[in-house]
């Protein structure tokens, strides 16, 4: 019996040491990779801002993922979140419009996040994908098929079609990837709704909850 107890204690100690070492290693890896990941994320956001608002010289956050107003749910539906809002400024600091970061939770493979640039008159400059995990060869075609269709469009609301777009407000769906198409279109509509209801006409881009 004593030998069994000793064996159990020994096994427990070994398990404790393994768990402790694994925890320390995970903590070390997190500390080492945290800063590079943050830098890469910031770089991706900066590139997305320029992609959707090339005319702007600088961008300033008025609603951030880290701020108290983050995670605003649009009135469109609960599947669309506004994660961040940046002012797009010219060289003299004048407001040109906004870069809105949107997450739609309806993707076939999970969340789809993108940035969209909207000028003060409501024109959508375009969108830039930040995160997408759709099916290869189908939903992952969103960058090639869907993104270009949103460029330089001034509409209040988009719909998608499978028979060929007949107006600026219609987006040609990805063949075989209706769920992905729907998610992106709904996300863009959520961003436009947020612009129309919250940002349009605000003094200097101030957002009041």
Which terms would index this structure?
elongated; 209 residues; 26% strand; single chain; alpha+beta; 37% helix
Describe the fold and architecture.
The chain is an alpha+beta fold. It has one domain. Helices cover 37% and strands 26% of the residues. The chain is built from 3 helices and 8 strands; from the N terminus they run αββββββαββα. Strands 1, 2, 3, 4, 5 and 6 form a 6-stranded antiparallel sheet that branches. The longest helix is centred in the N-terminal third of the chain and has 51 residues, at 2-52.
What is the succession of H and E elements?
HEEEEEEHEEH
Number of structurally distinct domains: 1
Work out the radius of gyration: 23 Å
- State the total count of DSSP E strands: 8
Taking the sheet with the most strands, its summary is: 6 strands, antiparallel
Q: Level of helix content? A: 25-40%
Q: Calculate the mean pLDDT score and round it.
A: 85
Strand content: 25-35%
User: End-to-end span in angstroms?
Assistant: 67 Å
Ranges with pLDDT <50 over ≥5 residues?
A: none
Task: Note the overall shape.
Answer: elongated
So how many helices? 3
State the secondary-structure class.
alpha+beta
Summarize the structure.
37% of the residues lie in helices and 26% in strands. It has three helices and eight strands.
Topology:
Elements: H1 2-52, E1 58-63, E2 72-73, E3 80-89, E4 95-107, E5 110-119, E6 124-131, H2 142-145, E7 159-161, E8 170-172, H3 178-199
Parallel strand pairs: 7-8
Antiparallel strand pairs: 1-3, 2-3, 3-4, 4-5, 5-6
């Amino acid at each position: 019996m004593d030998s069994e107890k000793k064996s159990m204690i020994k096994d427990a100690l070994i398990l404790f040491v393994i768990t402790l070492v694994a925890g320390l290693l995970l903590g070390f890896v997190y500390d080492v990779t945290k800063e590079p990941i943050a830098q890469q994320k910031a770089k991706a956001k900066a590139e997305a801002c320029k992609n959707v608002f090339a005319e702007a010289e600088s961008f300033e956050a008025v609603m951030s993922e880290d701020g108290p107003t983050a995670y605003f749910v649009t009135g469109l539906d609960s599947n669309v979140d506004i994660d961040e809002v940046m002012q797009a400024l010219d060289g003299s600091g004048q407001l040109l419009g906004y870069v809105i970061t949107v997450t739609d939770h309806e993707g076939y493979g999970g969340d789809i996040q993108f940035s969209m640039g909207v000028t003060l008159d409501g024109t959508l400059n375009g969108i830039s994908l930040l995160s997408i995990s759709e099916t290869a060869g189908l939903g992952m075609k969103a960058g090639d098929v869907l993104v270009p269709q949103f460029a330089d469009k001034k509409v209040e609301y988009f719909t998608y079609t499978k028979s060929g777009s007949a107006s600026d407000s219609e987006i040609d769906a990805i063949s075989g990837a209706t769920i992905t198409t729907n998610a992106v279109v709904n996300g863009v509509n959520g961003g436009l709704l947020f612009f129309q209801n919250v940002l349009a006409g605000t003094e200097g881009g101030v957002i009041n909850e």
